[in-house]
Each structure stands twice: as structure tokens, then as C-alpha cells.
Design goal:
Length: 239
Amino acid sequence: MYKEREYRKWVKSDDLVTFEVKEAQTDLFISASRNLTNQARESILNYRKDIERYIKKDSSFYTALEPINISNDAPLIVRAMADAAEKAGVGPMAAIAGAVAEFVGRDLAAFSDEMIVENGGDIFVKTRVARRVGIYAGESSPFTGKIALEIGPDEKGLGICTSSGTVSHSLNFGRADAVCIISDNTALADAAATASGNAVKNRDDIEKALAIAKSIKGVKAALIIVGDKMGTWGEIKIV
């Protein structure tokens, strides 16, 4: 069942045009220099087709909770998901939202100098100016609406992905209110957020989860919120 993503109402970007594009389970909130709904829909459908066809060929890609080997002829997005899963030690579907956000974002970047694609809390950002990304850790969290990550100009593209054991509908074995990971690779950020979040059963596990994030090659920073406690590691600026 679809649940409205209330946090999207917080978005303020006077210099960009924002629009939503939905196809089946894919629900993207996009900010760009102009409305690119048609181009985004085409891109989404292409990548969904690649993933769905591969799952029909190998159902373990959909069900695995650990890294798996994939065929040499797998589509590029499938390979990106599998590679991220291997580095983070999780199943490939743990990287799907981040992978779709980045792949669609890079397609649309051909039409817009700046690009922000949000996919269920997983974000691909390509920006020429500093941006702030708010942290949503549930309506009852003392941090929700109070803190944000400041992201500097990054024209190559950056992934900011959040996993939650108390808010998200995605599969998560932990109890963190928010695990936010930053990486140059959005699929990896998504997979790493799941891996780190799975380790959090209570607030005493924050340091352990941060250590997991730190151990994953390609992760630049992490922020973890459990109740009224927060921990951070890496290249991160909170405002």
C-alpha cells in the first residue's frame, strides 16, 4: 500500500523545478532546472525492465540477503547493485533504490546542469551550489526537522541514503530510527545503510554500526540516530 511521503513537503528549492514520477513501485521526487517528467519516466521504465528481466532469469537476485554472483551479461544497473552488495555484505536488492536514483539522475543530467533524485529516502545529488538535506527519523524523533546535512557543490554526483528499522517499509533487521550514509556511489550508500542499520538493536549499538560503515570501502560518512542519541563518522557537516 502506498504511503504518502510527508517529508517531501519540506523540500524548498526556489532555483529548481520539482516534480514526481511514479511507475509501479518506483516513486521518484526530482529537482532539476526544468520539468523532465517524460525523460524520467522513460529512464525508469528502461531500468525497471533490466532488473525485472534479470530477476526472471535468476530469482535469487531478488531473494538473496547476502552477496551473490551474477552472470557476465547482466545489465549495468544489475552489476552496480551486485557490486554494492558485495562491498557491504548484503543482498543486491538492498541497493535498488539508490541504484535507480543514480542511474535515472545521470540520464537526466544530460538535460539539466543540476539534479536531485530522491527515491524513498535515497538521494542522488549533482549540484553546483551548497544544498541542505534534512534528516527524517520518524515523527517522534527529537532530531526530525531539527538537523540537516550540508552538502557542498559536487558536479560529479553524490549519494546520500537513509535506512530505518522504525520508519521505512524496506526490509531492515535493525532498530535504528535513521542510518544515513554518504558515498560517491549511491547504490553503495544504500547497501551500506542497510548493513549498518542491521547492526543496531538499541542505542548502545551506534558505535558498532558506525564501525561497520567505516569498514566499507567507498563510504565517506555516516550518521546514526536511535531515540535521543546520535553518532557520526567521516566527512559530514550537520547544520
